[in-house]
Amino acid sequence: MINDSLQHQGMRRKLVEIVAGKGITSEPVLKAIGKVPRHLFMESGFIKFAYKDQAFPIGVGQTISQPYTVAFQTQLLQVLPKEKILEVGTGSGYQAAVLLEMGVQVFTIERQRELFVRVQQLLPDIGYHPRFFFGDGYKGLPTYGPFDGIVVTAGAPYVPDELKQQLKIGARLVIPVSEGEHQVMTVVERVGENEFDEKQYGMFSFVPLLKGTN
Ligand code: SAH
What we know:
Layout: H1 6-21, H2 27-35, E1 56-59, E2 62-64, H3 67-77, E3 84-88, H4 94-101, E4 105-110, H5 113-125, E5 131-134, E6 147-152, H6 161-165, E7 167-179, E8 182-192, E9 195-204
Parallel strand pairs: 3-4, 3-6, 4-5, 6-7
Antiparallel strand pairs: 1-2, 7-8, 8-9
The structure holds S-adenosyl-L-homocysteine (SAH).
């Protein structure tokens, strides 16, 4: 039985208003934020922080992303139901759950063994079923691609070519690219076999996209 009380639902409605107030306009994205029980992604001692629009530590030096940031990246992805989406950086599984609420198929990669093990237990328990992979997200998932969209949820020093090559034509890669301490939200659209269009959407703050596995 999932513990999602009326109080949690009320706090979640407020969170949706906050995120909308910060400029998220996509109805499907706002609806998904309104559905995912974010408090279940945090250790119980921190539940009162679950519906604040803030990132939060989830152990092993990692964070559950800020809801606004998740909404912003999801809005930039422009997903449609049934599409095949790759997420790099499973972390808490919150972003994956938001995408699943939008009716897409999610393939998600994590490089930290501890987080990978934990999330594989948590997500199915609360009704979310992405396909989980342990590995280095710089490489993507060449055998499962090409994808209708790719979202990277850690700050990358550059846009990995492997990920660009796993986009279908017309598909988008949403990736925060480091510039000093912070990252520029970047959308790379594959407009042709060898043609990519790049746009930038403001500064964000992510944990780093690291190489290899741990
Ligand atoms: N999407 C997550 C955000 C977690 S923070 C959420 O909604 O909670 C970023 C995550 O990316 C961390 O879990 C980190 O371990 C992972 N990560 C960092 N570098 C990676 C890489 N090269 N491949 C896969 N995951 C990576």
